[in-house]
Amino acid sequence: MSQQTSNVTFHERVEDALRDQILHVALERTTERFQRLRVTGMGSLPNADAVRDRVRLIRAHTLSRLDAYLEQFAANVERAGGHVHFAADANALNRIVADIARTHDVKSVVKGKSMISEEAELNHALEAQGVRVVETDLGEYIIQLAGERPSHILAPAIHKTKEQVGQLFHEKLGVPVYTEPAEMTAAARAILRFEFLNADMGVSGVNFGVAATGTICLVENEGNGRLTTTAPRVHVALMGLERIVPTLDDLSVMLQVLARSATGQKSAVYTNLITGPRRNGEGDGPDELHIILLDNGRSRVLGTEFAEILYCIRCGACLNACPVYREIGGHAYGSVYPGPVGAVLTPALGGIAPWSDLPQASSLCGMCREACPARIDIPRMLLLERDAATRAGQMPWWLRFGLHAYSVAATRPALFGLAAWGARVGTRILGASNQGWIRALPPPLNAWTQSRDFPAFANESFRAQWEKYQGENQEQKRK
Ligand code: SF4
Prior knowledge:
- There is one protein chain.
- By secondary structure, the protein is of the alpha/beta class.
- The protein has 2 domains: 10-300, NagB/RpiA/CoA transferase-like (Rossmann fold); 397-478, no CATH class.
- The protein is 52% helix and 11% strand.
- The strands form 3 sheets. Strands 1-10-7-4-2-3 form a 6-stranded parallel beta sheet, sandwiched between helices. A 4-stranded mixed beta sheet has the order 8-5-6-9.
- Iron/sulfur cluster binds next to helix 14.
């Protein structure tokens, strides 16, 4: 797994994000709206809880027999006239796509939305061999024009305001400074229509692969996925090897929650089911279909205590629900997969050492687990990863020191009482001028107050309040 800005630390990226007022406006506008839409969308699903249980069961069952389902899927794709390739890692995937491009003398590629291509950094690999790649999902197109990386697994340009996009289109496409999203979409559509019709190869993601039929399912709202997969003469579909479902019935269960969890829609505008390339007598579709299944650490995660993260159907709901993501956005994570799912998946696939900060990017409030249509217990795995980081010696010295000091005090009641008294008095003095809220703590505690206030401790400790409460309670009972 690659990192976007390897020379900048996680904390520096977070500080930059917290200072970025435009980012806050963009995140607030969109995550809040997605959250509301998800609640309404799931509310429109009869027996939503039972459907979520079913989603979880199907994902667990599929992963428990993944090798058999992958074999069945591959056999059925081949039977329908497609080709299946297994890629052990990102380099292997890039080599396979590059070989297909070379074989077919491909000069230009249109690309639908695909997190796997981000994971493998496919665009760089193709561009290095002289192939022009054009993103066709509107969000991805914006990001490509801006020379940036996606900051959300579903809405790649979520960190940009419409005003920024209007200015970007003006600078890069030479169009007037549009203020309405519809005008910007029309400008992008005019350019992309030409690209679709002239591309030699289409590269798309895959939401699900159906083992029983060899069908791939792509869910989208813009129609660009349909054009990417049918207009060019070669279609290359990229999927993580965990994205299998056994049957079309199982697929229908996934589809009941995917769009609802993502955008609140009962169903996405386009649900494309593709089984093999164009057959004799059919008017549309590619001459060849290649499906590449990427491992890149996934098979290593299977059977571990992190396997549950592979249940993910990439709806993005946990990102929109996460109070940390909503403050810092996706780029601060530095990984291809941001937010709660990324904080678990990235270290699970790429090892804890380079990603030991990500599990700390959580308040453990559990909102991600509540929002997840597969009921993935993300907080449980975040705690396991924090433990793994500690065992790997990745915990910062100040945290190690702090926890050690706490464990010394917490096992000595007199010392604990003294420390609590000191904290009470100290924080009340510091917060006296601001109604009990401290604007700036002294170093090394000032990191907390760089972005929020700290409340002064209560006048009485919890233990003192509890003793008083019990005393009053008993007094009342006696009366
Ligand atoms: S972890 Fe759950 S909520 Fe988050 S993207 Fe995956 S399926 Fe959606």
